[in-house]
Specification:
12 strands; 454 residues; alpha/beta; 12% strand; Helicase, Ruva Protein, domain 3
Amino acid sequence: MKERILIVDDERSIRDTLKMTLEYEGFAVDTAENGATAVERVRNSPPDAVLLDIKMPGMDGLETLERIRGTDPTIAVIILTGHGSIETAVEATKKGAYDFLTKPPDRERVLLTLRNALKHTRLTRENTRMREEIEGGVNILGVSRAIREVTATIERVAPTEAYVLITGENGTGKELVARALHRLSRRADKPFVEVNCAAIPSELIESELFGHEKGSFTGATAQRIGKFEQANQGTIFLDEIGDMSTAAQAKVLRVLEEGTFERVGGNRRIVTDVRVIAATNKNLATEIADGRFREDLFHRLNVIPIHVPPLRDRREDIPLLIEHFLAETAQKNKLPPRRIERDACERLQSMPWPGNVRELRNAVERLAILCPGTITATDVQRFVSGSPDPFGSLLNEDVTFQEFKEKAEALFLRRQLERFQWNVSRTADELDIQRSHLYTKMKKYGLLRGGEET
C-alpha cells in the first residue's frame, strides 16, 4: 500500500510542485489550501506524514500542527517555512514537528527528510501497536453500544489536556478508563499517579496529596514528596474523589486553578503541571446539595464526563468477558484452556452482578480453578456465589398456588428477556408466543429492563 502524504500550503504552485514530485516517487498525495481543511482531512483519513506551511491565513501552521498532533500524535509533520521565519519553525519543532524545510523546497532534501519522517511514523505506530498488545490498548472489552461509546470518547479525549470525571458503580472499570486515557495521551511516557481518596484518613489526605516538611506535625520525621509533585508532567488519578474532605477539596481546587501548591508546614510555592482525572461512584449532585462536595470543584473537574455503565446494562458483553477471563486465569495459573457450555454462559449472563465486572471476573476465575473440565450450568449453580436457585426460593415463601405460579412465570419471563437483551420479538419467537401476548405479560408483571419494576 502506498504511503500517504498530505501537503498543506496556501500557495497553489507549491502544492502542485510537491504533489507532482511525490506522486512521481510513488506516494499517494492529498492537498489542502488551509489549516482547517488539513485538520478535517487528518480526522477523516489520517496520512502517514504532513508537509505543512507555517504562514497561512486563518489558522496558521503552529495552530494546525497542534490540532494535527492532538488528533493523531503518530503522524510526522514537516514544516515548510520561508527564510524569514526560521525562528518560528524552530518553535514548531519544539511543539512536536519532526523537522522543517525552507522554501523553495529542494527536491532531494524534501525526499530525504520525508523518507526519514515516514520511518519515524512507522516506528512510532509499531511501538504503539506493540504497547497496546502488551497493555491491552484501551483495554475495555465489549461490543455493546454503551461500551463502544465509552471507548470512542476515550480515544477522542485522551490526546487532549482536558480534565475528565469518570462516574460509575464499584467494579465497572473506572480505573481502566483512567489508565487508558493516560496511555493514549501525550503524557504517556510520564508518571501515572493514583490516589485512592477513600482509603486515606481525612487528617492525612493533604500530606498525601501535597507532601509535608520535616517537623510539620507529630510523626513528620522527614520531608515527604506528595502525589501532585510525583505526577509532575504526567497524570494524577483521584479515585473516589467523592470521599475527599471539603478542606482537601478546597486545596485541590486551588492547585487546579493556579498550578501551584505548598507542602504541609512549608511556605514555598511549588509549580506542578499535571492532568487530573477523577472518578467517583457517588452522585455528586446529591453530595453538592448536602454540602459534602464543592460545586466549584465539580465544575472544574467535569470538563469531560465519562459514565461507565454497569454490567447489567451491557449483558451482551458478558460472553466476551467470560472468554477473556477464562484465558487470563488459565495463563496466570498455568492451567489447561477452559471451555464453558452455552447454558452455563447464559446462566452467568442472566445474573444481576451487583459487583459488576470485578464480581464477574472473580466468579469466572473461581470456576476455572475449581472445575477440572468444561464448565457447565451445574458448576455455575454450585460454585458461583449469588446464584441460588430462584425457583427453589419461591417454595419457602408463604404463598398460594396461584401466587407461586405467577411469581414463577414472571421470573421465567425475566430470565428469557435478559437472555435476549430485552429484545421482545426474539424472546417471543423463542418462546413460540405472540409478541402482543408477551407485552401483556410484561405489563402484568411490571417487567422493565435493568431489573426495575413498575
